[in-house]
Design a protein that fits this description.
- By secondary structure, the chain is of the alpha+beta class.
- It has eight helices and 14 strands.
- Helix content is 36%, strand content 27%.
- The strands form three sheets. Strands 1, 4, 5, 6, 7, 8, 9 and 14 form an eight-stranded mixed sheet that branches.
- Helix 2 crosses helix 3 and helix 7 runs antiparallel to helix 8.
- Bound molecules: ligand DP6.
- Ligand DP6 binds next to helix 4.
- The site of ligand DP6 has 15 residues, from helix 4.
């Protein structure tokens, strides 16, 4: 017998970053985080539990998963099996619809789509909060991709308390937001995966503790800025928070340095855009790419300036996207 389900989830970009864990075994973040789910970057995943299979099998964008990818997914799938009281193995087919060969992280949309598809195929009908916890155990940032729009991740004290939830947006800021993703370096594979890099940073960076202490302050200020629809205040926190994360990472020994020359050029373009009166605030994740928070009004101007920046090889524009959903 086969039971299968297909789900779609969208990637998210953190406005206040998750960088560091307080418990690696349960994948509990050291602090909260805040993100915007993006409509332009999606993952579609089908999970089929099949009594004829004697091992899990997985394809990613049509190729067989590596042994490491399969092992990580299989271990995670054991949680779903335990919860559903089944031992059946599964076939997982996952496809990323990212409109560029970007090297952008897909673990957020990947584990969010997987959590919804796998739990549904296993016969569980989990509420969103449970899905968020399940996705978090796969990848911390995936907890946030269960929801659309602006999303807050709680650090929580216990595993059951470390979940994401949609953020109130009383002034209707979300539909006005755009994220411009400027790809640097042609989407070359990233040097250090975020999981290993944040662990190394926590273990060796003299600035890690200061970073972790700063996050709750940035979260409170970002939420207040969103509540007041104050984009200038929000943007300043977004940019400062990303640079603080990178400062802590760069100070690791040996360093975790994602920046390329074109990264600095792109950051300088963002500053020039602001000087010229545009809404443009930079953020960066575990790679050389620069993402710019802007508005629907300024999106074309910002995208054109990023495209004209030497070393920027591709630019995509995204609005806010929806949460994870089942597909027929
Ligand atoms: C820089 O969610 O990939 O993108 O929980 O170990 O899978 P794991 O880490 P992951 O880390 C994301 C780091 C980041 C910042 C963010 O998305 O908040």
């Amino acid at each position: 017998m086969t039971t299968s389900a297909t789900a779609r989830a969208h990637a998210n970009i953190a406005l206040v970053k998750y960088w560091g864990k307080r418990d690696a075994a349960r994948n509990l973040p050291a602090a909260g985080s805040l993100s915007l789910t993006l409509d332009a970057l999606t993952t579609i995943t089908t999970v089929s539990f099949d009594a004829w299979l004697d091992a899990d099998a997985m394809t990613l964008d049509g190729r067989d998963a590596t042994a490491a990818e399969l092992a990580r997914t299989s271990t995670w799938l054991d949680l779903v099996r335990a919860r559903a009281g089944i031992a059946t193995r599964a076939k997982i087919e996952t496809v990323n619809h990212f409109p560029t060969a970007s090297g952008l992280a897909s673990s957020a949309s990947g584990f969010a789509a997987l959590a919804l598809a796998a739990s549904t195929a296993a016969g569980l009908a989990l509420p969103a909060r449970e899905l968020s916890i399940l996705a978090r155990i796969g990848s911390g940032s995936a907890a946030r991709s269960i929801y659309g729009g602006l999303v807050r991740m709680r650090a929580g004290d216990l595993s059951e308390e470390a979940f994401a939830e949609p953020l109130d947006d009383p002034e209707g800021l979300t539909p006005r937001l755009r994220m411009i993703v400027a790809i640097v370096g042609g989407g070359a594979p990233k040097l250090h995966g975020s999981r290993d890099a944040m662990e190394h940073s926590a273990a060796t960076s003299p600035y890690h503790a200061a970073w972790v202490a700063q996050v709750p302050r940035d979260l409170a200020a970002a939420e207040a800025a969103i509540a007041a629809a104050d984009l200038g205040a929000l943007g300043a926190i977004v940019e400062g928070n990303a640079l603080a994360m990178h400062a802590a990472a760069i100070a690791s020994r040996p360093p975790v340095l994602y920046w390329q020359p074109a990264t600095l050029a792109a950051l300088s373009t963002v500053q020039s855009l602001r000087d010229a009166g545009a809404v443009a605030w930079a953020t960066m994740d575990a790679g050389p790419h620069v993402k710019v928070l802007t508005t629907a009004t300024d999106a074309d101007t910002v995208a054109a300036a990023m495209r004209a920046t030497p070393g920027v090889t591709d630019v995509l524009v995204s609005a806010s996207g929806p949460g994870a959903e089942l597909l027929p």
